[in-house]
Amino acid sequence: MQKFALSLLLAVFATGLFAQKSETYEFTEIKRLPATPVKSQDKTGTCWAFSCASFLESEALRLGKSEANLSEMFVVRHIYRQKCENYVRRQGTAQFSEGGLAHDMLNAVKQFGIAPESAYPGRADVSKPYDHSQLEKSLKAMCEELVKQGKAGKLDQKWLSKVDSVLDAEFGVVPQTFTVDGTLFTPVSYRDFLAIHPDNYVSISSFTHHPFYEKFILEVPDNWANGQFYNLPLSEMMRCLQYAVQQGYTVEWDADVSNMGFSAGNGIAIVPEKEWKDRSVADRQNAFKVWEPEKTVTQEYRQQLFDQQITTDDHLMHIVGMLDEAHGGDFYAVKNSWGEISDLKGYVNVSDAYMRLNTLSFTVHKNALPTDVQRRLGIQSGSATSGAPVMRPNSTPAPAATDKSNIKVSPARIQPKTSTIQPKATPQKAGKSSSN
Fold first, then answer.
1. For the chain, how are helix, strand and coil distributed in percent, rounded to 5?
2. 281 CB neighbour count, 10 Å cutoff
3. CATH architecture of 24-377
4. Of 26, 55, 60, 201, whose Cβ has the fewest other Cβ atoms within 10 Å?
5. Cβ atoms of residues 79 and 168 within 8 Å
6. pTM (2 decimals)?
7. Are 48 and 100 in contact (CB under 8 A)?
């Protein structure tokens, strides 16, 4: 009888384990905000332009405008010119690549305005995908030659016209005017028509090597323009993110995605509790499909991985909503720029833990921040009082053990991936493509 009872207990226990392992991710929408169709950045490192253009398109919708299809290449062309000038004037010591950050888009929109895709497709043959690999090489080689000429005292006063010639050949001449729905616009008047005011947007980050509640220059290679970020404690950064989405604001997101927890092909991003190197073949095959618990992420752990260059800045995307996962709680609906891949057609469901660990920064309208945070940062006048957290119960992270499961595939910007990716036992190095 005792043996029978023990056998029955073991059978029930085994059944429970099997049932637990077979549970799939179950998502319910909490909030989904208006967004334009998914695009593809193709073979370029211009995710910063695609994500921020998508963000501004959603902002225009929030402000009551009709759906706009903004030209990413209008801004990219201006930024390449600024990068060339910066590189030459800094005598070849500055960062030069395809990558950038959200403030590059906003700075260009403030200075030059914006154009619709129809007015500036940004390539000679619109039937072909974007590909800036050769352009980047050509521009850098030209800039290095210009640096040599400058050091020799032989730089032509009209040297920037040579840069313009290369850019015009690649992107086309920038239009001075264009027509949208029968109305004639300039790039500046079109920006104003969409009610986009670049000075209204702020960037938020969270790192302990700078004082909290102050601005700092984020030390990542693509911050070539020395953009400033407000530094908040991790819990406050996450509170601001949730508050913004709940109040109807989408968010532009800069993150590390070159780790084994991010799978665009499966449409999900997580920080699993079980390390990748300890997984069986079956575990690896079920990753991103069968639910599993995630690591907790502290401020200290986040800083540790950033300092070790495990967490790096390599991709920007667009947060457009929140989800509830039946087992794990909060997830975020993120619009990517790698085309309509996976069953989610170009979207990725990103866990709260992944956000905490892998967010380099996010950009949002200043009014999307809680009032007490705005006041403490000096964005809004008045005394700052502590705001009530908006995080769900049990979502406050506990201390985490050292995690080597998040070891990066590559510290370089990554190329868009179009296939379903299954994690391997150990990460593989990807080629340095300067693509994001």
1. 35, 15, 45
2. 9
3. Alpha-Beta Complex (3.90)
4. 26
5. no
6. 0.86
7. yes
Q: What is the pLDDT of residue 398?
A: 41
pLDDT(172) > 70:
yes
Q: Which amino acid is at 180?
A: V
pLDDT score at 414: 53
Which pLDDT score, from 0 to 100, does residue 281 have?
87
User: Which residues are within 8 A (CB) of 303 and not within 5 positions of it... i.e. 6 or more apart?
Assistant: 207, 208, 209
Burial of residue 290, with CB atoms counted within 10 A of its CB: 0-12 exposed, 13-18 middle, 19 or more buried: middle
Per residue in 4-27, pLDDT tens? 444 444 444 444 444 445 699 999
Burial of 46 (0-12, 13-18, 19+ CB in 10 A): buried
| Residue ranges per structural domain of the chain | 24-377
Q: Are 420 and 398 in contact (CB under 8 A)?
A: no
Alpha helices (runs of H) in 252-402, residue ranges in sequence order: 281-286, 299-307, 352-358, 371-377
Name residue 272's beta-bridge partners. Answer: 294
CA–CA separation, 419 and 362 (whole Å): 27
Contact yes or no for 339/418 (Cβ under 8 A):
yes
- Once rounded to an integer, what is the mean pLDDT over residues 281-302? 92
Report residue 226 as tokens: 């020395």
